[in-house]
C-alpha cells in the first residue's frame, strides 16, 4: 500500500480557484469531470428506500468531486509554467493529494448547489420545506494544537462538517458536527502512522485529552485552562473520523466501501503489537446520508454552558472560518440575527454562498440569466423559511450575539455547512455508527 503525500507547490497552485480550472481545459477534461456512474435499473422512487436514494446521489457527487480534482491536477501539470513551476518538479507528482480533494468537498459552488438539490429531493418535506442552505469555506492551513507532554504541534483536522436544522416552534436549532482528518491512499487505510501523524492519531483516538492552540487559532476555552472536546453533548459519540480518499483515478478494485472514492473510519487506540492506523469501513456517501438525517455526528448547541467545550468549539470555528465581511453582510435586505441570534450562522453562510456563486464562472449547465434566477429563488426560499421559523416561536427574543471582529488570526478550519427548515426533528444521534474493522494481525 502506498500513501500519497500532498505536494506543497502543487497544493498552493491548485487552491487559487478550486474547480474552475477543470472547466477550461477542453471538452475531454470537462467530460471527465462530469458524473459518469454506471447505469443501473432501480425501483421507482416511491418504493425505493429514502436513505438509498440520498446516499446514491451523494456518492455521485463525491465521485464528481474527485474527478474534478484530477482534472485540475492534469491541467496544472500541463501548464506548470503559468504558476512558476518547473517541468522537472511537476513530473514527480503522482496524485492530487488529500488537501485538493478536501477543497473540492468544501469550496466548489457547483458541487454545493448540486448537494443542495440532492438534499431537497432526498429529505421528506417535514425535514426540508424549501431550498436547504449548503455553503462552505476552505482554508489550506488548519489550526495547530499541542497536547500531552510533547512540544510538537499538529493540525487539529482538515474539515469540520456542520449540520443545522431549524424545527418549527423551537427556540433554538438542532445541531450536529463532525471533524474529519483526510488521508490519500491506494486502499481504504491510512497506512502505518509515525511521528507527528501518530501523535495526531492519539488525539483523535481520545478527545478527553486537554489541548491548547499555541498559535492563537482559537481563543481560550470557556472553562478551565485547556480545551477538552469530549466535554459536551453525547461525549461517548464519535467526534472525528479519518477520511481516506483514493489516490487513484478509479477506486474500483481497491476495496473501498461501496466503491466510493471517499471512506471513513475510526481512530481506535491500537492494541499492543499493532501500529497506529485507521481502516475505513463506511463510505463517505453513507456517512453524509446519516449526517444529513441527524443520525451521524455529535450534537452541539448554539447556546451552551461553560462546561460544554464541544459546542463552544463548533461555534468559534464557524465564526473564525467565515470572513468578517460575510458575517456582517445583509442578504436580500433582511437582517436575520435581529429576529433570532441563531440565524446569524445562516446569514453568514448565505452571504458566503451568494458571493461564491456570483464570482464563479464554471457553471455550464444553464444560461447566466437562469443561473441568477435560480440563485435569487434559493436566497428567497432560505430567507422565507428563516422568517417563518423565527415567527413560529412566541417565547422571548434572544439577544443577538455581539457582532465584533473576532480576535486573533483570520481563517480557521475548512467547513461544510448544511442548514434545513422543517416541522419535524432530526433523527436521534447514534453513538457508534461506524462499523468496526476486522481484527488485524499483530506486527512482529
Summarize the structure.
The chain has one domain. It is built from 12 helices and 11 strands.
Explain this structure.
The chain has one domain (97-422). The chain is globular and about 60 Å long. Strand 2 (144-147) and strand 3 (154-155) form a beta hairpin. Helix content is 34%, strand content 13%. Helix 3 crosses helix 8 and helix 11 runs antiparallel to helix 12. It has 444 residues and is an alpha+beta fold. The model is unreliable at 1-51 (pLDDT under 50). The protein has 12 helices and 11 strands. The strands form 2 sheets. Strands 1, 4, 5, 7, 8, 9, 10 and 11 form an 8-stranded mixed beta sheet that branches. A 3-stranded antiparallel beta sheet has the order 3-2-6, with helices on one face.
Provide key terms for this protein.
444 residues; alpha+beta; eight-stranded mixed β-sheet; three-stranded antiparallel β-sheet; 12 helices; 11 strands
Number of strands: 11
- Helix and strand sequence: HHHHHHEEEEEHEEEEHEHHHHE
- Strand fraction band? 5-15%
- Indicate the low-confidence ranges by residue numbers: 1-51
Radius of gyration: 21 Å
What best-fitting shape do the alpha-carbon axes yield?
A: globular
Major β-sheet, in short?
Answer: 8 strands, mixed
Q: What's the N-to-C terminus distance? A: 18 Å
Mean pLDDT: 83
The helix count comes to 12
Class computed from helices, strands and strand pairing = alpha+beta
Helix share bin? 25-40%
Structural domain count: 1
Amino acid at each position: 500500500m502506498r500513501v500519497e503525500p500532498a505536494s506543497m507547490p502543487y497544493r498552493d497552485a491548485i487552491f487559487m480557484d478550486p474547480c474552475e480550472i477543470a472547466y477550461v481545459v477542453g471538452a475531454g477534461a470537462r467530460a471527465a469531470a462530469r458524473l459518469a456512474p454506471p447505469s443501473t435499473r432501480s425501483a421507482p422512487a416511491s418504493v425505493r428506500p429514502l436513505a438509498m436514494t440520498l446516499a446514491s446521489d451523494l456518492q455521485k457527487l463525491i465521485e464528481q468531486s474527485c474527478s474534478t480534482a484530477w482534472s485540475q491536477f492534469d491541467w496544472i501539470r500541463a501548464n506548470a509554467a503559468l504558476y512558476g513551476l518547473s517541468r522537472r518538479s511537476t513530473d514527480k507528482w503522482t496524485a492530487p493529494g488529500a488537501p485538493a480533494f478536501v477543497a473540492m468537498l468544501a469550496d466548489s459552488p457547483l458541487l454545493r448547489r448540486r448537494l443542495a438539490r440532492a438534499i431537497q429531493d432526498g429529505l421528506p418535506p417535514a425535514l426540508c420545506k424549501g431550498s436547504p442552505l449548503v455553503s462552505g469555506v476552505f482554508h489550506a492551513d488548519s489550526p495547530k494544537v499541542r497536547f500531552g507532554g510533547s512540544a510538537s504541534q499538529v493540525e487539529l483536522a482538515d474539515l469540520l462538517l456542520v449540520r443545522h436544522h431549524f424545527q418549527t416552534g423551537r427556540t433554538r436549532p438542532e445541531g450536529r458536527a463532525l471533524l474529519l482528518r483526510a488521508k490519500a491512499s491506494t486502499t481504504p487505510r491510512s497506512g502505518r502512522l509515525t511521528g507527528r501523524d501518530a501523535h495526531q492519531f492519539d488525539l483523535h483516538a481520545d478527545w478527553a485529552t486537554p489541548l491548547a492552540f499555541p498559535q492563537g487559532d482559537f481563543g481560550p476555552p470557556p472553562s478551565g485552562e485547556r480545551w477538552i472536546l469530549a466535554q459536551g453533548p453525547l461525549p461517548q459519540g464519535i467526534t472525528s473520523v479519518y477520511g481516506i480518499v483514493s489516490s487513484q483515478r478509479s477506486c474500483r478494485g481497491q476495496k473501498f466501501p461501496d466503491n466510493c472514492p471517499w471512506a471513513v473510519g475510526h481512530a481506535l487506540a491500537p492494541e499492543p503489537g499493532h501500529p497506529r492506523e485507521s481502516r475505513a469501513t463506511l463510505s463517505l456517501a453513507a456517512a453524509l446520508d446519516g449526517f444529513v438525517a441527524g443520525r451521524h455526528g455529535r450534537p452541539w448547541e448554539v447556546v451552551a454552558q461553560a462546561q460544554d467545550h464541544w459546542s463552544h468549539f463548533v461555534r468559534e470555528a464557524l465564526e473564525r472560518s467565515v470572513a468578517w465581511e460575510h458575517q456582517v453582510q445583509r442578504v436580500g435586505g433582511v437582517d436575520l440575527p435581529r429576529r433570532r441570534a441563531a440565524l446569524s450562522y445562516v446569514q453568514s453562510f448565505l452571504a458566503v454562498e451568494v458571493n461564491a456563486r456570483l464570482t464563479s464562472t464554471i457553471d455550464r449547465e444553464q444560461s447566466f440569466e437562469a443561473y441568477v434566477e435560480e440563485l435569487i429563488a434559493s436566497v428567497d426560499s432560505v430567507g422565507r423559511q428563516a422568517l417563518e421559523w423565527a415567527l413560529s416561536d412566541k417565547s422571548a427574543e434572544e439577544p443577538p450575539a455581539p457582532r465584533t471582529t473576532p480576535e486573533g488570526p483570520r481563517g480557521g478550519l475548512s467547513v461544510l455547512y448544511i442548514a434545513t427548515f422543517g416541522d419535524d426533528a432530526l433523527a436521534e444521534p447514534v453513538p457508534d455508527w461506524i462499523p468496526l474493522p476486522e481484527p488485524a494481525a499483530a506486527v512482529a
